[in-house]
Amino acid sequence: MKTSESSSTKIVGFDILRALAIIMLMIHHSEVYGMKLFGVSLEGLLPYFEAILLGIFFFISGYFAQRSFQKQGQSGVSFFLARLLRIFPPYLFALSLYMYLLEISFKQRDLIIYLTGAHFLFTPNYTKPVVTIWYVSAIILYYLIFGLLLSNLKSTKGLIIGAVLVYAAAYAIHQWTGLIDERFYKYYIVFLAGILFVRLSHLSKWLSGEQILPKFAVALLWL
Questions:
Q1: Hey, how many other C-beta atoms are within 10 angstroms of the C-beta on 6?
Q2: CB-based burial of residue 134 (10 Å sphere; 0-12 exposed, 13-18 middle, 19+ buried)?
Q3: Residue 69 vs residues 18, 62, 111, 136, 168: alpha-carbon distances, Å
Q4: Distance between CA 53 and CA 57 in Å, rounded?
Q5: Which of 135, 138, 14, 159 is nearest to 76 (CA)?
Q6: Is the pLDDT at 156 greater than 50, yes or no?
Q7: With contact defined as beta carbons under 8 Å apart, do 134 and 123 qualify?
């Protein structure tokens, strides 16, 4: 009975975070940054607001990716394919709406890159960047990387070491070739943090339970 209540509380807590992130996303894509508060422009809040709302989405994705991996015991390939089948059809639909409603056109090479969802690897140096849908390509890449890491590295220590090595390799590739969007490095750590909150039970207990909003306020202050 106690376990059931704990699980329920966790779900409610994450629902609150999702709702908050969605509200922040709507505000972020409005004209709010063009406004002034007591004569001070709100434009300076843009990078912080963006980092917080996207950080919430990436953290939750990492958290539930780890929970799903533990529950189903999938291999890295099956884990990645299951998530790809879930998010790719809506992504293709969104991409078609962007092209039709916003009249965004692509060169043939760019279109192929976007249809495969690989644009996070090639923007902004090798293909045309498109606002918003980069998130889907980023989450696909994280699912691929951490699906392979989770299936091959069973210990938390091994996972952290493997994640750091991948991070360093990705940074080196970016420096040498210009591949991989720079946002990869910022949200990679947040996605990994979501995974670790499941694997390290005392962190998971701190996240769940009562007073989720005060705890989230502390997390925002830390961020």
A1: 14
A2: middle
A3: 21, 11, 32, 20, 25
A4: 7
A5: 159
A6: yes
A7: yes
What is the per-residue pLDDT across 8-50, written as a single tens digit (0 to 9) for each? 445 677 788 888 888 888 877 777 777 777 777 777 777 788 8
* Tokens matching residue 115: 């249809």
Dist CA 113 CA 158 (whole Å): 33
* Owner of token pair 């809506």: 90
Task: For residue 36, give both structure tokens.
Answer: 């002034």
In tens, the pLDDT along 108-131 reads 899 999 999 999 999 888 998 887
Q: Which two tokens stand for residue 43?
A: 């434009």
Rounded to 10 deg, the angle between the 2-28 and 46-72 helix axes is: 150
**pTM recorded for the entire structure:** 0.81
Q: Which two tokens stand for residue 174?
A: 């970016």
